[in-house]
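[SOLVED] Need 3D model of a two-part complex

Original post:
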Amino acid sequence: MRSDPIFLTMTTTHASAKPRPQFRNLNLSQLVAYRLPPAGWVSIMHRASGAALFLLLPWLLWLFDLSLTSDLSFDRMREYASHWLVKLVLLATVWALLHHLIAGIRYLLLDLHIGIGKQSSTTSALWVYYVSLPLAVAAGLRLFGVI
Amino acid sequence: MASPIGAKRLVVGAHYGLGEWLAQRLTAVVLGVYVIALGVYVIVQRDLSYDTWSALFVPLWMKIVTLLALAALLYHAWIGMRDIWMDYVKPTGLRLTLEFATILWLAACAVWSAQILWRV
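Solution:
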């Protein structure tokens, strides 16, 4: 057993060390007041849109099944999708997909160390919205028969 | 002798590896290419009829490409959902249950996808 002072000090410090601080997720009251930068919004919406797509997956597979089984089921799918509520869910799906896709491309570029500067990453975060939102609006106009 | 792994490691943690991180990105590239290609096709065709739409999935190569894209989707979804469960669900038992349910659910979706595609 070593008894030099420095070793004893180290072990004593270790034994009486404070519990490691834990940094958990923000709670809801903090979350509401928290002002996220654009990149933060892209990040949380990337997660939210991904989760939404996961939850919508069985419904989308069901629609895919209807669209391919026969011309009768194809017509049945079109009729089903003509309801405004279904159109609204479809629009939400298209938005989720667009956001997830475009934010995902941004993340792949960041992984390649492209645009990791503070300013350029903020700009690219804003561009995720500049691209995904107009495309989602266009999809909405098409869905609701405007264009 | 103390465990070489250490007490801070979790039984159902992330395996602390690069594998899932990399798989998430590789499947993302596959999905991005497939979704953009299919999206452009649907937009260019404008009003798709059943005949045009179903004819697209008749060739074997399209079935294989689509099934690979769906497999990439399910693996991608698994890693993403696993991340979400790991971030927000702290009780180990509950997290394991949710992760297991996610795997079962995605595996069921994989079988369903194959059945849809091979009926065309």
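Edit: The first helix of chain B runs from residue 19 to 45.
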